[in-house]
C-alpha cells in the first residue's frame, strides 16, 4: 500500500464502499453523501482529502490492495493448480461486473480532466501490486509443475504475461456478454482460460 491510513480515513473509505454496495453511481455522489455514509461531518472529509475525487480514488486504491491481499492469500492456500486459477478468475469476474471497480474508474476516462493526477496515482498503485501478483503466479506455476501439468518455469516475466493475458481475455469475454451470458457459458470461459494458461506453460 502506498501509505498507512488513519482510523478516520478508513471510516471514510467504508462509507464510500457502503454507497457502492447500495449501487450508487460514484460519479454522481456528493461529499455530503460520503460523510453521511461514514457517520462523520462533511467538513471532516476535507481534513484528510482535498476533493471528492481524491476520496473516491483513494478508497478504490485501498480496496484494490486489501482485495488483492485477500485473493492472493486464497490462491496461495488453494490445494491444486486449477483451484488457484479459478480463484483468480472469480476475482476478475467480480471486478468486471462491478461498474465502480478501480479499473473502470481509472481507465474508462470518467474521472474528468481535473482528476488526471489522481488517475496517474491510481495507475502507480496498480503497478505496485505487480510484485505481489508475480509471486502469487509463480507459486501457482510451481504447484502445477509438481502436479505434472507442465515443466517448471523460472521466467517470472513470462509467467506474469501468461496469467495476465488469460485473465484479461476472460474479462473481455464476460464483459462483451454482460447481462446475456448464462452460467454455463461463463463456466466454459473459465475452463478455456485454465486451458490457455496450461497450454502456454507446456
The name CATH uses for the topology is: Tetracycline Repressor, domain 2
The number of domains: 1
- What is the molecular shape? elongated
CATH class: Mainly Alpha
DSSP strand count: 0
Mean pLDDT across all amino acids: 85
Structural class designation? mainly alpha
Topology order in helix (H) and strand (E) letters: HHHHHHHHHH
Measured by DSSP, the beta-strand proportion falls in under 5%
Which radius of gyration do the C-alpha atoms yield?
19 Å
Distance between the termini: 34 Å
Number of helices: 10
CATH architecture: Orthogonal Bundle
What's the helical proportion of residues?
over 70%
- Low confidence ranges: 106-110
Main sheet?
none
Description of the molecule:
The protein has 202 residues and is mostly helical. It has a single domain (59-201), classed as Orthogonal Bundle (Tetracycline Repressor, domain 2), CATH 1.10.357. The chain is 72% helix and 0% strand. The longest helix has 26 residues, at 52-77. Mean pLDDT is 85; it is low at 106-110. InterPro entries: Homeodomain-like_sf (IPR009057), HTH-type_TetR-like_transc_reg (IPR050109), HTH_TetR (IPR001647).
What's the structural blueprint in terms of helices and strands?
Blueprint: H1 7-21, H2 31-38, H3 42-45, H4 52-77, H5 81-97, H6 102-107, H7 116-128, H8 130-146, H9 156-176, H10 183-201
Helix pairs in contact: 1-2, 1-4, 4-5, 4-7, 4-8, 5-8, 5-9, 8-9, 9-10
Summary keywords:
202 residues; TetR/AcrR family transcriptional regulator; Tetracycline Repressor, domain 2; 72% helix; mainly alpha
Summarize this entry quickly.
This protein is an all-alpha fold and 202 residues long. It has ten helices and no strands. Helices cover 72% and strands 0% of the residues.
Amino acid at each position: 500500500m502506498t501509505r498507512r491510513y488513519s482510523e478516520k480515513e478508513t471510516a471514510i473509505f467504508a462509507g464510500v464502499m457502503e454507497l457502492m454496495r447500495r449501487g450508487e453511481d460514484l460519479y454522481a455522489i456528493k461529499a455530503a453523501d460520503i460523510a453521511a455514509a461514514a457517520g462523520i461531518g462533511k467538513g471532516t472529509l476535507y481534513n484528510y482529502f482535498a476533493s471528492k475525487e481524491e476520496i473516491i480514488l483513494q478508497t478504490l486504491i485501498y480496496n484494490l490492495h486489501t482485495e488483492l491481499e485477500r485473493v492472493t492469500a486464497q490462491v496461495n492456500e488453494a490445494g491444486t493448480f486449477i483451484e488457484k486459477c479459478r480463484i483468480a478468475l472469480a476475482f476478475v469476474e467480480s471486478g468486471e461486473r462491478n461498474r465502480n471497480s478501480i479499473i473502470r474508474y481509472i481507465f474508462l476516462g470518467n474521472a474528468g480532466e481535473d482528476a488526471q493526477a489522481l488517475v496517474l496515482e491510481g495507475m502507480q498503485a496498480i503497478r505496485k501490486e505487480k510484485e505481489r501478483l508475480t509471486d502469487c503466479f509463480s507459486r501457482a506455476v510451481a504447484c502445477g509443475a509438481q502436479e505434472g501439468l507442465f515443466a517448471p518455469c523460472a521466467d517470472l516475466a513470462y509467467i506474469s504475461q501468461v496469467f495476465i493475458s488469460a485473465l484479461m481475455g476472460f474479462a473481455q469475454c464476460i464483459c462483451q456478454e454482460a447481462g446475456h451470458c448464462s452460467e454455463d457459458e461463463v463456466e466454459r470461459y473459465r475452463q478455456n482460460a485454465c486451458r490457455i494458461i496450461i497450454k502456454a506453460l507446456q
